[in-house]
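Let's sit down with a protein and look at its sequence and fold side by side. Please make up or recall a protein chain and show it to me in full. Label the sequence line and the structure token line clearly, so we can match residues to local backbone shapes. Go ahead whenever you are ready, and we will take it from there.
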Amino acid sequence: MGETWGFIDSGHASPAFNMALDELMLEWLSKGEMGPTIRFYGWSPAGISIGRFQDADEKIDFQQAAVYGMEIVRRQTGGRAVLHDHELTYSVVVPETHPAMPRSVKEAYLVISKGLLEGFRELAIHAEFAIPETSREKTDSAVCFDKSSWYELLVDGKKAAGSAQMRRKGMILQHGSIPIEIDRMKLFDLFSYPSAAIKRRALEAFKEKAISINEAADRPHDFDEVKAAFKQGFEKGLGIQLETMVLSEAQLMEAGRLAETKYKNLDLKFSIEK
């Protein structure tokens, strides 16, 4: 039996609340109010998260986002924009000094991504780690799933999960998106392109770059099935036991306040301050 980590199943919540709770988990961990913890969640309404330093004004079609009822939020982590719709999202908080965590960001990715790899295996999906070739992987796309980073998960050579990591106060936050379904038309409607022809070519190319759970699996899986598989996957991949935690009313209220005061009011043209 391995070490026991906390497990939070926070269900579906707004983009602002989801990002606020990830930030607070890192804060609670740094204060010793929480140990290493994994959280699973969904998005309601669907949203777009943009990277900490991404220029959203040049890339996001805000008018189309409004038409789709999308909320847009800026993440604490870097990287490019992600559409969060029919997916399972995970977040992991753990001290940098944890014996299982290498000092290197890239190698810490590998450790955490073993949980994702085992999650896909629980669904009988053969996945493997991405080992990018710098010259081949260059792209100007604003869309996260257009490109794989080190140790992200590939299925049939296509990106099946996207992750981002940050470190603050000696703590690691890694969170990521595991699409259950991908609505490619909606995704590309939400981004700005110089012309319709360029957008059409990008959409066609994207079909060969990203894959969802239900495209890769031998049968459709719903959110709860995917959640159960990846919970087992993280336990197996990280060699841990997950113990369910229930957030207190005070913690939920703190997350709600941070969502309202910070994440709903961020100027999306500018990055989050360091």
Remarks:
- The chain has one domain: 3-263.
- Residues 23 and 139 are 29 Å apart (CA to CA).
